[in-house]
Amino acid sequence: MPLPPFTEIAEKLPETVPFVGPESIERRLGRPFKARIGANESGFGPSPKVLSAIRDAAGDIWKYPDPENHELRHALAGFHKIAPDEVSIGEGVDGLMGLVVRLFIGPGDVLLTSHGAYPTLNYHVVGFGGRLEFVPYAGVHEDLDALAEAAQRLRPRIVYVANPDNPMGSYWGPEAIQDFIARIPEDCLIMLDEAYGELAPAGTLPPLDTARTNLLRLRSFSKAYGLAGIRVGYAMGPRRIVGAFNRVRNHFGVNRLAQQAALAALADQDYLAAVKTQIEQSRKQITQIAQENGLSALPSATNFVAVDCGRDGAYATRILEELAHLGIFVRKPGVPPLDRHIRISVGPNPEMAALSEAMPRAISAADQ
Amino acid sequence: MPLPPFTEIAEKLPETVPFVGPESIERRLGRPFKARIGANESGFGPSPKVLSAIRDAAGDIWKYPDPENHELRHALAGFHKIAPDEVSIGEGVDGLMGLVVRLFIGPGDVLLTSHGAYPTLNYHVVGFGGRLEFVPYAGVHEDLDALAEAAQRLRPRIVYVANPDNPMGSYWGPEAIQDFIARIPEDCLIMLDEAYGELAPAGTLPPLDTARTNLLRLRSFSKAYGLAGIRVGYAMGPRRIVGAFNRVRNHFGVNRLAQQAALAALADQDYLAAVKTQIEQSRKQITQIAQENGLSALPSATNFVAVDCGRDGAYATRILEELAHLGIFVRKPGVPPLDRHIRISVGPNPEMAALSEAMPRAISAADQ
Fold first, then answer.
1. Is B335 in the A-facing interface, judged by CB distances under 8 Å?
2. Mind telling me how many Å the CA of B25 is from chain A's nearest CA?
3. What average pLDDT score do residues B320-347 get?
4. How far apart are CA A163 and CA A196, in angstroms?
5. At what angle do helices A349-367 and A269-292 cross, to 10 degrees?
6. CA angle (B183 as vertex; B180, B187 as ends), nearest 5
7. Cα torsion angle, A316, A320, A325, A326, sign
8. Inter-chain CB proximity B187 and A98 less than 8 Å
9. Does B209 score more than 90 pLDDT?
């Protein structure tokens, strides 16, 4: 019997989940995690004012959201001192990445990224029939020199850099990033993922320059703002590129409560400052727990710490699995040589205590 | 200076908003609407249990949503008596339509629909380089015979039918729909949009048959369930097609509160039954207001009533604009001959009173 045929591109795609959710693992293990510190969420949560805003807005949930995200877009433009049509809102950075790829990557077009960088971006590129080119990390950093050199040689449509970096937590300062930007051909779009930007040391992010016609910067409410569940990310850049989202986006895609929650989060910068101190403190706790167990923790400019387990990827995976059995959810990079690390997200004291208790047991089980 | 080139398809697309939101009109007019009865939202709102669920879940908003939508998918499968992998959740029916088009419509591929049917679907088809073919409505109904005949002749990749219909509010019974389904070539996907399905007379929707390999049914929490702001729709059909969403969807796209809200809404079928009575009552009020003003209201199986303004599209547009100036938000079909109607959504008594007061003034202004 003839079946409706998929497009040529869709026919070849696998069914996949770029990240297995902790809920799936909990269902498989048959019990909830004691410490959910694997998805770089913020267990410190959002500002209490955000929760009030959500509860206040709930009664309006029968209304469609504003498809122009007008209030939030204008608030972000004011905050970043750019024009309202230089910012676009999407269903998380993941959703925005899908749109960027759709706008710029046709079948066979190349996106250049680092081997071991954000897998969801790769999912989108493959999903639109694009081709991925990789350069390796230089140690624990994305290799800006190698990326710039490859961009000049391969002439990709897009080059991707995350700063601060995920999954390693490292970062480059503004001079290194600006030097990198200057070396990328003008017809290659630079996708600068700053999802962890609020958590980097002050002065890390280069000033916004929306006159740069090939630079798009992505930001998130999921990390420092503690709103991973609400699905709001935003893109900033020149009008030509930001406006193009209006050619392809799901206009009513950003939920009404999400818009209100993001507005309230942005307005409470005092809370953001306070939570950054908590996150810093928690990074120190993770570092100390790692050291107590003979492992070395990398410096981090994010809300997670990459911990070097000191042997190969298989060994790090064993530790991760033992931790899961002990009720601790963490994740790890999948690509050598990064894969000898596990990636532990910050969290409140009870989560850190659970980690501290589980870690020696996980290591000793993995050692056997 | 060279600019990053868009893909061939994206280059040709216009920036657009398929539906201008009432908020945009309010910003233009400089004041809020008194009656928001234009977007087929449900001013009766969702179940109070939904609002409780949202407020209870707010504290968990720092966690990413479950990317598998496991609980909601299983609840819907149980409710509809199908398998959990025969249902997929998306960011509203709009989001799901985008995915279906992406999976089945490549450059030049044809989607067959009715002239004047849902514009957002057309937006997606154009957005993926597809080609639209249209048949006209037969009076106030989508013309199932003409669609089936054109499907046999044009061999489109997808044929689209809404039942009940938007923007006219008409419907076909199960025999007519099943006869239509049987006439569509097996390699053509039937996209059956049942966003208003809960509001049709009992027995209108044909029984679910996920063994039919070319039938996909779309449902929404935006209409009868009163949750337009939460952005949850779902698709039901054979495993091959429903599973394919996992090749292309934004896995973390459905917000955490949205999943909880939809679960609570589905669980409160008593509220749904009660609100259906209110909606029926409101349809009668709209019909009466139309008649009092010398206009004829069409029968409706939805949460809106199409009102025939009796002359041409320009006249109906004048009435709509006068209503807007009087604080009443309604919409209208854009395509002749449907465009001589205005489409008024149901609402609570204050909204109906405002409509009743404004309608004679709008008509008399339009008559001048």
1. no
2. 11
3. 97
4. 7
5. 30
6. 115
7. positive
8. no
9. no
Find the CB nearest B7 among A21, A94, A103.
A103
| CA atoms within 13 Å, Cβ hemisphere of A350 | 7
Query: Which residues on chain A are in Cβ contact (under 8 Å) with B275?
Result: none
Higher model confidence: residue B208 or residue A126? Answer: A126
B11 touches chain A (CB under 8 A): no
Q: How confident is the model at residue B64 (pLDDT cuts 50, 70, 90)?
A: very high
Residue of A nearest to B18 (CA): A251
Query: What is the residue type of B310?
Result: G
Q: Give the tokens for residue A326.
A: 């002990």
Beta-carbon separation of B1 and A247 below 8 A: no
CA distance A101 to A197: 22
The residues in A 115-134 lying below 8 A from B, measured between CB atoms, are: 120, 127
- φ, ψ of residue A240 to 5 degrees: the values are -60, -40
User: Residue A157: CB partners within 8 Å, gap ≥ 6?
Assistant: A104, A105, A109, A110, A111, A130, A188, A189, B4, B5
Residues B133 and B196 in one domain: yes
Measured distance CA(A284)–CA(B350) in Å, rounded: 58
Q: Is A45 on the interface with B (CB under 8 A)?
A: yes
Whether chain B has a CB inside 8 Å of the CB on A32: the answer is no
Residues B160 and B90 in one domain: yes
In angstroms, the Cα distances linking A40 to A22, A169, A204 are: 12, 11, 20
- What is the spatial distance between Cα B368 and Cα B364, in angstroms, rounded to a whole number? 7
Task: State the residue range of the domain holding A152.
Answer: 48-268
Dist. CA B320–CA B316, nearest whole Å: 6
Tens digits of residue pLDDT in A134-182: 999 999 999 999 999 999 999 999 999 999 999 999 999 999 999 999 9
Looking at the structure, tell me whether residues A182 and A282 fall in a common domain.
no
Query: Of A268, A292, A312, which residue sits at a domain end?
Result: A268
CB contact B247 to A (< 8 Å): yes
Answer yes or no: is B3 within a domain.
Answer: no
Mean residue pLDDT across chain A: 97
What kind and span of H or E run contains B146? helix B144-154
| Residues B172 and B241 occupy one common structural domain | yes
Instruction: Determine whether the interchain pair B4/A189 forms a contact, defined as Cβ–Cβ distance below 8 Å.
Output: yes
Q: Which of B4, B98, B246 sits opposite A104 (nearest CB)?
A: B4
Q: Using CA coordinates, name the residue in chain A closest to B90.
A: A253
CA distances from B271 to A37, A74, B226, B230, B276 (A): 39, 38, 11, 18, 8
User: How far apart are the C-alpha atoms of A311 and A336, rounded to whole Å?
Assistant: 11
CA–CA separation, A181 vs A192, rounded Å?
10
- The residue type of A237 is G
Give the number of domains in chain A: 2
